[in-house]
Amino acid sequence: MIWTPGAVRAARRIATAAVVGGGGLTALGAAAYGLLFAEALLARRIVGQPHGLDGPPSDGLYGADFPGQPIRLAMLGDSTSVGLGTTTPAHTPGVSIANGLAAVAERPVRLTVAGQSGAASADLAVQVDRALQAHPEIAVIFIGANDVTTQTPPAQAVRHLQKAVRRLREEGCEVVVGTCPDLGTVRPIAQPLRWVTRRWSRQLAAAQTVAVVEAGGRTVAFADLLGPEFMTYPAEMFGPDRFHPSDRGYLQAAYTVLPSVCAALGLWPEPEPERVEGSQYLLAAMAVEEPGTEVTATRVAGRAVGPHGRWAALLRRRHGPMPGSA
Q: Were both Cys, which of 20, 211, 284, 310 would link to 206 (CB 3.0–4.6 Å)?
């Protein structure tokens, strides 16, 4: 890949704004957050509450008809990790990932859901404690949206996430993080606040990418994953509260993460994906603009670090029908 020093510097500013000196809010930022809070209250009053306070219980064994020892999978994070708004375990992202993983591996999968609705990155420590009790081989984390809406300083949010990933990796667990989605695609948030949340969401996602790669995990960009579909099929992709995904929206999130989960375990049967290598800062900035892209650490000429930071690889995987889906 070819890039200019100016492009690298711009990407570094985007990806590290939350890590180096970017933890506070400017006066304009604080005022914007005040407006966002007021918009959120109004939006909640208009759209109402989602079904229940959490997703349906979904811990258990999936793909039980397959032989062999179960693969141990843990789900951590916020309401999207538990499938808030779904009415049956089968529609939660954890179960969709577990069923897909079982189909690819031809082995059963034991799922432990440690995520919790309303969780922010600061809550990951307790979730990791619970997840490690199950000795997971692979952990999937969906986190970031509540860090934006609760005004968590980005540097603080990223530190909590990086610590969680490191703890899991130290125990030999592979980690895939679905980064902060673009909250600017949420329709109950009106303009001009929508473009503000879009910027905050994507800057946090870029910083998450850098932190996770440095901690030994891999990321999958959610970006505006549901944005185009929501514009075309709003009743199908989002649930009754118009904030959380519908069953179909959760399936798409699971479908987007599944290839990276399988690849982390050495199971993905697809040919080598389209691959771009470069500075982690530049690739983090690129990833937040393209839903479904994976970023992971790599080496170039035997070196883990280059002149513009740690080397990373951006992978664009070819998605086929999700195993076991209609």
A: 284
In this prediction, what percent of the chain has a pLDDT beyond 70? 68
On the CB side of 323, CA atoms within 13 Å amount to 20
- Tell me whether residue 91 is one of the annotated catalytic residues: no
**DSSP state for residue 122 in the 8-state scheme:** G
Confirm whether 319 is a catalytic residue.
no
Alpha helix (H) ranges present in 121-192? Answer: 124-132, 145-149, 154-170
**What pTM does this model have?**
0.83
Selection from 171, 97, 95, 98 nearest residue 131 by Cα = 171
Q: Nearest CA to 124 among 137, 136, 142? A: 142
Q: In this structure, what token pair is assigned to residue 289?
A: 């603009």
Selected catalytic residue, list 201, 241, 260, 308: 241
Beta pairing class for 174-178 and 274-279: unpaired
147, 244, 247, 260: the active-site residue: 244
How confident is the model over 257-294, as pLDDT tens digits?
999 999 999 997 666 778 888 888 888 888 888 888 89
Residues 58, 79, 121, 201: which is the catalytic one?
79
User: Is 241 a known active-site residue?
Assistant: yes
